[in-house]
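Archive entry: two folds, one per protein. Generate the first.
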Amino acid sequence: MRNIKILEVRSEIGAGTRGASLGVDAIKIAALDFMSNLFVNFPSEIVETENRLLYEPVASPYAKRIQGIHTMYERVSKSVSDTVKSGLFPLILAGDHSTAGATIAGLKMARPKRRLGVVWIDAHADMHSPFTTPSGNMHGMPLSISLAEDNVENQLHSPDAQTLDLWRKLKNMGKIEPKILPEDIVFIALRDFEKEEEAIIKKGNIKVIPVAEIRRKGVENVVRQTFLHLSNCDDIYVSFDVDSLDSSISRGTGTPVSNGLKEREAEDLVASFMQHHKICCFEIAEVNPTLDKENMMAEIAFNILQRSVNLLLLN
């Protein structure tokens, strides 16, 4: 049985669309609607945000609000690290996906000698840097931060010195760089990425499991294949971006993409992962109720969360 601690990270300064900071409360409302006591049963911690920066001018066009992201990385990595060190399983409800790099930093800071695998269930690769970003939004950069990958071979921009200094600090958070290796990442449901990111995937020979493969092989097979691929890892972190779901059901997120997972597929997938003893952290990100109808996205996220927690308590 795992002792769980919920970390609430309502940061949305890494996203291009407003509203992801409300996702945590939308999930809590879904819990109330389903008469679940999930949020009463476990200790939780609210990580302070820098969302006030949304009202200020953007200083770094190729890494928007990177100063605030750096502050969030310090806070989130410390919370995650402290949670793990105190013997608890961090269950993270995040606004936008940018802070996932801080989650990875915290997991490594708590256990620096252990090899960390990452299961990234997301429509996007999130492997841009200030040198390659098409938008400047930092929720497209957490994995390149964790890999310490600038991707200058595919450089499109020349960021200013202050941006680069903060970028270096993000990569070196916890004085561990890189935090993960390309061969220790598995993408699931990836289907929307730029050629600059594709170059990193090819160079690192990163494993990608598309939605069609899940349907062809079945969830159990795909999960088994993932663990086999990550067999050299001591710990495995699962990050679930709700845009991994098909756009027909994932309207309540900032960047919906068609041809994604069905609700049941996502639920079965996450549930299968949660039964494994190597899973050390689970995160859900990018629920945006301002884009939604009748809180549907949060309800789906909550169902995934509830089933995951039930399984974590059994293991």
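Generate the second and append.
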Amino acid sequence: MKKLKFIEVKSEIGAGTRGASLGVDAIKIAALDYGSTLFKQIDSVEIPHQNQLLFETQGSPYAKRIKGVLSLYEKLSAEVSNTLKKNGFPLVLAGDHSTAGGTIAGIRMAYPKQRLGVIWIDAHADIHSPFTTPTGNMHGMPLAISLSEDNVSNKMNKPDKDTIDLWNKLKKLGNISPKINYKDLVYIGVRDIEPEESFLLKKHKVKAFTTAEVKRNGVEKIAREALSHLSQCNLIYISFDVDSMDSSISKGTGTPVRNGITEKEAGSLCVRLIQNEKVCCFEICEVNPTLDKENLMAENTFEILQKVVSQLTN
């Protein structure tokens, strides 16, 4: 049995709304409220964040605080890689979703010759680049970084040379670029997509399951089809953004979107997917208690995390 390890990334420099860096501690408070000893049972390491940059100028308007994101990626990817090399299972608890690109880099650094599949459970496609981003927020870019995708044919912005240099460093981290292929990416619950992203998903025929399909076909069938789509991959990484859940549940997140899955569906989905022996890493992100009432989002998220952990330790 693999040794589980929490990797805490209390970073929010990639988000547009403040507060996601508090999400990890909010999940821990939910654990205490439930009387759970989960965070005592599993070893934990905290990645140094760059949140002090929030008090400085944002830098490029098309890749805000990208220098800090690169620094974070270097530390996070090293920790993920080392954990995997020691036959550990990284459970990444992150603030904003920009960190996922660092997690993917770490997996590939540990297994440079393996083919990695990604299951992205999220309301958003997160496949913008500095050339296409409408906001400049880097939590909308982790998959573009991992796919080494600039999408210049849909270019709206003109980032300066320094920004492009830093962007290229992010893409090439670990000397592997691209780190994943479009055919090895599966979206579940994605529903808030900009035209520039939509262009890429159509062009590359990316596999995506809508909320309606989850509700119509059931979690079991969706999970089976998602895993079947990635059957050629050696390894699978699951990234769970809490805004995949419906906005009626996910008030405590920076970018809530209507017509999402329920917390029960999210929990069942994560548990079903994690049963696959190819899954090597699981990440949860975007809990923001400053937007929440009575820590509800963190409580829902903790329940999902607890189910995932008990599945991994069975």
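Annotation attached to the second fold: The beta strands are 3-9, 43-46, 88-94, 116-121, 185-188, 207-209, 235-241, 279-285. The mean pLDDT is 97.
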